[in-house]
Amino acid sequence: MDFKLNDIAIYDGTINSIRNNLMDLISGNFINQIITLNLDFLRISTLDEEFKKICMDAALVVPDGVGVTSLLGRKYRKHFQRITGNDLLIELLNLSNTRQLRYAFVGASKEVQRKMSEKIKRDYPLIENTLFISPENNFEQDNQKNNLIIEKLTLFNPDILIVALGCPRQEKWIFNNKDKIKAKINIGVGAAFDFYSGIIKRAPLLIQKVKFEWLWRMLIEPKRLLKRYIIDDMPFYILTLTNLIFRQKKI
């Protein structure tokens, strides 16, 4: 059975079971895109047909956030486990424990990337081949700058491409360029680079477990997230939940 929101099929497994999915993707011969669908992604997918199609075409879409898992739970009367971009970043790095892989990271500042590189070297000594690219703002709008980055990535020949440019920018950029880069796994992870590097502290485990990580993030980054969470996403969530409860509209 497919579990869908806005016609987007969403993974219903756990963080433990998804490891097998990642192993299958990296062992196969296809170019795969993974989407971490949070509430903001879902809202954007109702407004942006191109982004919705990218989500529908993805090899794997995980429910990233309590907003999406609660809507799925209401619609299908079952429990869905939240799987975040932060979780998948760790799981993708863990793949290096069983095979030699080449990792490319695009996005974030050079300082964030420096700290990430140092931490990866400490935590994953088996990872020998990494490429970090900190692109200029809106680089993809300049063909020359974009082509230069594609050329660097193509020459590096990554197995896994991890991009942190924000939604829907990172998903669209991956979709438009993945067939040139040819990484087997391509994923946008939003702010995960900041969390992994330690530049921004992730919510304590207790706050994550009680499903208030979104509030923690908003309090830490109010300028960036207050409008998104309260003005944009909260009304969308309430309307969508109401539609599910009263079956007024398909979602």
Please tell me how large the radius of gyration is. 18 Å
Query: Biggest sheet: strands side by side, in what order?
Result: 4-3-8-7-5-6
Instruction: Return the structural class.
Output: alpha/beta
Q: Write down the secondary-structure element order.
A: EEHEHHEHHEHEHEHEHHHH
Which segments are poorly predicted (pLDDT under 50) over 5 or more consecutive residues? none
Proportion of strand residues: 5-15%
| Number of helical stretches of at least 4 residues | 12
Helix content: 40-55%
Shape: globular
In whole angstroms, the N-to-C terminal distance is: 16 Å
Work out the number of β strands: 8
Mean pLDDT: 94
Largest sheet: 6 strands, parallel
Topology of this protein?
Elements: E1 4-5, E2 8-9, H1 18-27, E3 32-37, H2 39-47, H3 49-57, E4 60-63, H4 66-76, H5 85-94, E5 102-107, H6 110-123, E6 129-133, H7 143-156, E7 160-164, H8 169-181, E8 185-188, H9 192-197, H10 205-209, H11 213-220, H12 222-246
Parallel strand pairs: 3-4, 3-8, 5-6, 5-7, 7-8
Antiparallel strand pairs: 1-2
Helix pairs in contact: 2-3, 4-12, 11-12
What this model shows, in words?
53% of the residues lie in helices and 14% in strands. The chain has 251 residues and is an alpha/beta fold. Helix 8 links the parallel strand 7 (160-164) and strand 8 (185-188).
Keywords:
12 helices; 251 residues; six-stranded parallel beta sheet; 53% helix; globular; alpha/beta; two-stranded antiparallel sheet
